[in-house]
Structures are given as C-alpha cells and as structure tokens.
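Propose amino acids for all 177 sites.
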C-alpha cells in the first residue's frame, strides 16, 4: 500500500512540475514582442484615434481608431466607432504577408491581402471572404492606405457590386491622439 501511495505522489509531483515547465516555456514565448512584416509594422504606427472626412455623403466627418491586440499580432481598425455604421477591420500577417478581414455593415466579411507596397503606400486586394459572392454581392474589394506623414493618412476603399467597380470612398484622416 505504501508503494502505491508513493507512486501516486511521484506521479502527481511530476504532473505539476511538467505543467510548471510547460507554462514557463509559454510565458517566455509570450514575453517576446511580435514582429510582423514590414507592412504590418508600418500599420502599427497608426495606433490611436484619427478624425477627418469621408467622400461619401458630401465629405461627412469620420472617426477611425486603431488598436493592437492578440499579443501584438493583430491590429483592429474601427471605422465610425459607436455609430450604426460601425465596422471593424482586423489586420494580420498570413505567413509574412499582410492580410486583412473587413467586418462590414453589409453583413459580409471580405478578406484582402497585400497587392503591393512602398514606403508611402499599402495596397490590399480582395481574395475571398464569407457571405460574399464577388460576382454579385456588394463588397469592399480594395483598400489603399497612403501615408502622407506621421499624422496624416488617406484611405481609398473600392466598392464592387455585380463583379464590377462601383465606387471609391476616400477618407482623409488626421491623428488626434
């Protein structure tokens, strides 16, 4: 009986030691800051609140917020926060290539990936999504972000319907915090 109790004790101790070691490894991994693609790191510089105008509806005022989440591996962009038109886009790296999913007020979720980039511009293009038939459904199909300077950007959102370009909405944004 004593052998059995000692054996159980050893097994329980090994379980806890193994759990501690495994969680220590995870903790060390989590302490490392996430570093993404050059384009992802460029988007991280947008963290904060931006205000400006949208070409839609006669240059209405717009607010956009950028936040980092998921241990630094995702950037959340909230368009029109707190309004009935609120939409969220999540930027991430798919491998080492920038990707994005746009959670649209139209009820679809177009996905885009990096088409091209330079030091002043990031261009994303539609690659698929959920609730989107690109030959019929209205959806965001392209996004171009131009970095004017550290406190000013221009976003051009290209809208498609019935498989064709229908409209481009331009946001001219200035950092406010």
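Proposal:
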């Amino acid at each position: 009986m004593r052998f059995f109790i000692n054996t159980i004790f050893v097994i329980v101790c090994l379980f806890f030691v193994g759990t501690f070691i495994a969680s220590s490894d995870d903790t060390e991994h989590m302490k490392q800051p996430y570093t993404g693609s050059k384009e992802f790191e460029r988007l991280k510089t947008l963290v904060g609140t931006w205000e400006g105008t949208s070409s839609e509806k006669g240059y209405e005022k717009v607010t956009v917020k950028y936040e980092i989440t998921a241990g630094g591996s995702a950037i959340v962009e909230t368009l029109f926060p707190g309004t009935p038109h609120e939409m969220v886009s999540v930027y991430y790296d798919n491998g080492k290539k920038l990707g994005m999913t746009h959670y649209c007020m139209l009820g679809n979720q177009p996905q885009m990936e990096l088409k091209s980039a330079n030091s002043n511009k990031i261009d994303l293009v539609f690659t698929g999504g959920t609730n989107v038939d690109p030959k019929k459904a209205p959806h965001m199909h392209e996004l171009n972000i131009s970095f004017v300077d550290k406190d000013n950007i221009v976003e051009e959102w290209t809208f498609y319907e019935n498989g064709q370009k229908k409209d481009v909405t331009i946001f001219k944004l200035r950092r406010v915090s």
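The longest strand covers residues 164-175. The chain has a mean pLDDT of 88.
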